[in-house]
Amino acid sequence: MHSHVPSPPPPDPVSSPGDDREFAWYAGDHHIHTTFSRDAMYSVDDQVRRARECGLDWMVITDHGGPDHAKQSVALQTPLIAEARRRHPVLVFQGMEWNVPGAEHATFIAPDHADTPDLLERFERAFDGDVLAARQNPGGPRLIEHSVQGGPEAEQLGLDALAWLVEELRTGTVGEALVLSNHPMRTGRVSPSKVRGWRDAAPGVFVGWEGAPGHQAAALPPPLGRGRGRGQYDESPGRWSFPGYDLDQYRTWGGFDAATARLGGLWDSLLAEGLPWWITANSDNHFDIGDTVVVGEASRAHYVEHGHRGTPVDSGVVQHGYVDFAPGFYSRTCVGSARRDYASVMAALRAGRVFVVHGGLVRAVEARVRPGGEGPGVTFGARTSVRRGGDVEVELLIDPAVEPNGSGGVPRSARWDVVVGTVTGRVADTERDLFQAPGTRVVESFEVPAHASGRQVFRTTLRGVADPLYVRFRGSDGRHADADGHPRVDPIGDSDPWDDLWCYTNPVFVDVV
Q: What is the 3-state secondary structure (H, E, C) of 178-236?
């Protein structure tokens, strides 16, 4: 049915001889839409099949919340997810994309549990921003300029939703869920204080954001693409945008959200508080670029009545203006999980044992951070400690790509950076809109030899550690980095996502005792 066939999935990155880890890396995508979204078209089975063809081990179906979706879509979708689980060897989480009151969107992930559909339905009907907007303005536009969209009242509605969810998980049958902010900087409505509020309201539940958004093909020029920004990040400040952001904060940097990619930016300011805040990457798949498939039933009336957009139809003609890659075809969130099951994958996401990669730049990357240079060390998301004044050995292991990616070539990472920031503690209430961490720095960079093959190992030592810190890593193909190795702001309208590949990891925290 589709006009392109994904490359075969790369070899399992966990099978290298001599590995002593207690987990394996499993690739996934937590932001995927189906015909049950008001603006998407693929069936549940299509999305699961395509995700597996692209090498994914787990995925989350996240159709848009809203008044029409809330009427029946979760119930209609539930048996189709169950059938897809039986047909395909991939973990399929049932979730939704929450319209966060006063902000942007978020992935809501729930476990494989009989009561998950009920939890999703009750949460959506009570707290989805579009549902609340429709109640405040019956018959009006779906998104309207009132308290649900911005201001202190809207922010409080989001916090109320999280408080309800935390209590429901404590007392209910499902027992666990995860929330991750989607495309956080796209409209500027996600202020630093909102992020801190979410994290504090639901620790262990609201755990991070998309470090890189989906819609990565949006910047390809017409006629095939839309000539927009990567991730459709080409907005300008609006009524409810945080006034402290400059225009570059609304753009992607090497395909990554500015809040993640900007050294010493918002992500680093959160990490400098010493509390976990994790990154992911995904497809946000609605319509594959270059596909010949079209929506089966495009009318809003059909969606309102039936809760879906019908069975997609193959037109036989390549469609113009589609902006997505299939799940796993370009973006991957790789989690280090002890087992390949629902609970273990959720636990790994919650723990931040994650690296994210675009375009198959590497098969796997892993850190081993060893205080005193002893023991096996810890990896992403973990916390360790060193005696004041002691040394910390940092080891980075890279399994390079060996298969062509979607552009037809085998990608090669050219440079890896070790990024270190000082943990200064929680900010004061008057500083909750802080979004800079000026002390964050690249302490070591490794150039990858042009003809290197096999696992690459890089080491450095942080000497005389006097203050708590975190250490994270990033790699790139080096094609569009600046002279210091940092990502550049992506141009709008003509930016090839295959020509600017990056990989980021979550941090390791090092306490001083």
A: EEEEECCCCCCCCCHHHHHHHHHHCCCCEEEEEEECCCCCCCCCCCCCCCCCHHHCCCC
**CATH 3.20.20.140 domain residues, the chain:** 24-354
Residue with tokens 């000539």: 227
- Are 254 and 476 in contact by the 8 Å Cβ rule? The answer is yes
Rounded distance between C-alpha atoms, residue 179 and residue 162, angstroms = 9
Contact predicate 76/308, CB 8 Å:
yes
- In 34-151, where does DSSP find H-type helix? 44-53, 67-87, 116-127, 129-136
Indicate whether 266 pLDDT > 80.
Answer: yes
93-144 tens-digit pLDDT: 999 999 999 999 999 999 999 999 999 999 999 999 999 999 887 765 554 4
* CATH architecture of the domain with range 362-512: Sandwich (2.60)
Contacts of 278 (CB under 8 A, 6+ apart): 180, 207, 208, 349, 352, 354, 381, 506
Question: Looking at domain 24-354, what is its CATH homologous superfamily?
Answer: Metal-dependent hydrolases (3.20.20.140)
DSSP 416-449: EEEEEEE---PPPGGGTT----TT-EEEEEEEPP
- Residues paired with residue 362 on neighbouring β-strands, in sequence order: 400
Rounded Cα distance, 502 and 500, in Å: 7
User: Residue 328: which of 293, 295, 356 has the closest Cα?
Assistant: 356
Q: Give the pLDDT confidence score for residue 2 in this predicted structure.
A: 41
Contact 394, 428 (CB under 8 A): no
Contact 403, 410 (CB under 8 A): yes
Residue in the structure block whose two tokens are 């400690």:
385
Tokens for 206, please give them. Answer: 């609201």
Tabulate helix, strand, coil % of the chain (nearest 5). 25, 25, 50
pLDDT for residue 6 is more than 80: no
| Dist. CA 27–CA 69, nearest whole Å | 29
Residue 384 near residue 369 (C-beta atoms within 8 A): yes
Give the C-alpha separation, 174 to 242, whole Å. 35
